[in-house]
Structure formats: C-alpha cells, structure tokens
Amino acid sequence: MSSILYDQYKQNIVPQLKEKRGYKNPMEIPHLVKIVINTGVGTDKDREVMQAASDTLGMITGQKPVITKSRKNISNFKLRKGMAVGASVTLRRGAMYNFLYRLINIVLPRVRDFRGVSAKSFDGVGNYNFGLTDQSVFTEIDLDKIKHTIGMNITIVTTAKTDDEARDLLSMLGMPFAN
Q1: CA 174 → CA 106, 108, 116, distances in Å?
Q2: Distance CA 83, CA 174 (A)
Q3: pTM to 2 decimals?
Q4: What is the pLDDT along the chain (179 residues), one digit of tens a residue?
Q5: Which of 41, 55, 39 is nearest to 146 (CA)?
Q6: How do strand 128-132 and strand 152-158 relate by DSSP bridges?
C-alpha cells in the first residue's frame, strides 16, 4: 500500500533535493527512516491511566504500543525497577508516511493558536523532535471518552547528515515550520 506522501516524495521531492543540494549519488538523498511516538505517564498514576495512554496511542497510530518500564529504582519518585512509566510506538515504511501525512494536513492545523512548529528542534544530526500537549487534536479520538489528558513526543528520524538537509526535506514534505 503506497502513501500519497511517499508518492509525492519519489516524484517531486527527490528531484528537487537532488537539484538544490547537488547530490551525485541517489543514496545520498535524505529520506525518512522512522517516526517514534512516545508518551510518559508517570509513576503516581494508576493502571487506568496507563491503559488509557496505551489505547490512545494504539488508536492514533494503528499499531499496538510497547509499554516502557523503568530501568532502575528512584526512591524520591517512589519508582521501582520494572514499573510501567510510559508507552511508545515506532512507525516505519507505509504506516510512517500515512501518519506523517495525517499529522501535517489534519492534526497540526487543529492545534489551538497554531503558528507552526519550531524550526530549532533538530538534534544536530538531522532528526526532528516536537511535542503535543493534548491527544484531542487527533481525529481518531472520541472526545466524549477522554478521561485523562495525554501529551506525547514525536520524533522524526531521517538519514540527513545535517539539520539543514533535514529541514529542507521536512519543509518539502509539508511540515509547517514557524517563521
């Protein structure tokens, strides 16, 4: 199953990047590797919140999330090794492009007072991170059934070597960066 965004990448963006950056080898052209959606629930919440976070991520991505567990004991947070503290989903290939298309064209315009995502959230090697504070902007979520607000961190991993290459790639894919 091919995605609209992947077809656009192959037909339009690859030639534009090749011309703009002067890539000689087609393997040099940056592309998306994966998208990781991560949410932290915390230790003071009950199991119901963890289950709600897991179900929400599953509805948003169409994939069953992995429950992340603590790696060590931290007494100040009343945290014991092996306690569930969050949930994570990794999207690749078609599911990744479909999610990014929905994120850019449907979800981000629904964010209240949205003026674009920060253009400074790159990590130095071409990966982009940003967060959403509320899951209600996703169309898959039934607003009447929300009991707990769940924020999430979204990481877009690319093969770009620099932040400028990754910024060009994501802006050509349609990511609405703030001015």
Answers
A1: 12, 11, 11
A2: 39
A3: 0.84
A4: 578 889 999 999 999 999 898 888 888 899 999 999 998 887 666 777 888 888 888 988 889 999 888 878 877 677 788 777 889 999 998 899 999 998 888 888 888 888 888 888 888 888 999 888 887 788 787 777 777 778 889 999 999 999 889 999 998 988 888 87
A5: 55
A6: antiparallel
